[in-house]
Design goal:
Blueprint (H helix, E strand, L loop, with lengths): L4 E5 L6 H10 L3 E7 L4 E2 L16 E3 L5 E2 L2 H10 L13 H25 L6 H22 L12 H13 L10 H11 L2 H18 L1
Parallel strand pairs: 1-2
Antiparallel strand pairs: 1-4, 2-3, 4-5
Helix pairs in contact: 1-2, 1-5, 1-7, 3-4, 3-5
């Protein structure tokens, strides 16, 4: 039987957070990889016809409707399996704290810093500016974490899945997380989770296959 949902992703990109969430929740979702240069899926579909944004992730629902932004995709996936506790219930203060964290990660960290640093054609002055923001941003994340095991609440959530991806990228831009012991310990713990480890292993293999 065809899976009800389809995730469109790029190996080791921000869509990895959605892949982690799928495995954490045990959801029947098919993952399709796209070529970011041609915007064509591995099955030959024109990705622009799936997502008008042209970037990942996108989640096609059983209804045929498509979610096109990471925070909405993550929350939708989490809400399909409430017992996995990947997102607090709607209407609770904790849910709005989750939204707060996702907005912060997507705008202040992902968009403002890594979108520039990981874009080969970005001007050097823009990259220098983005790099100058990374250390103080990691300081802020360390303060948010404090001595807690998770970014929001008492359970691994989709905010943790997203933060894991962003922290993975730090080494690609020459930033050693050991300068932030709280973050380094947090990152190590999350990477040891079976679902996180499985998603990272699958996408690393796919990334290396494409680079060969």
């Amino acid at each position: 039987m065809e899976d009800a949902m389809h995730l469109y992703a790029s190996p080791m990109a921000c869509s990895l957070a959605s892949h982690i969430t799928i495995l954490e929740a045990g959801l029947p979702v098919t993952v399709h990889y796209i070529d970011n240069r041609t915007k064509v899926t591995d099955e030959g579909e024109d990705y622009w016809s799936i997502s008008p944004n042209g970037y990942v992730p996108a989640l096609r629902l059983a209804s045929g409707e498509v979610l096109n932004e990471g925070p909405s995709v993550l929350q939708f996936l989490a809400d399909q399996k409430p017992e996995a506790k990947l997102a607090p219930a709607w209407g609770t203060t904790e849910r709005y704290q989750l939204i707060d964290a996702l907005n912060y990660l997507s705008t202040e960290v992902h968009k403002r810093i890594f979108s520039t640093l990981l874009t080969a054609k970005a001007p050097e002055d823009a990259k220098a500016r983005a790099k100058s923001l990374l250390a103080p941003t990691l300081d802020a994340i360390a303060r948010r974490l404090g001595d807690r095991d998770h970014l929001v609440g008492d359970h691994f959530s989709v905010a943790d899945a997203y933060l894991v991806v962003l922290l993975n990228w730090c080494r690609h831009v020459g930033t050693d997380l050991r300068q932030w012991p709280t973050i380094a310990a947090y990152h190590k713990r999350q990477l040891a989770r079976p679902a996180v480890a499985a998603a990272v292993a699958q996408e690393t293999a796919e990334y290396q296959r494409r680079a060969a």
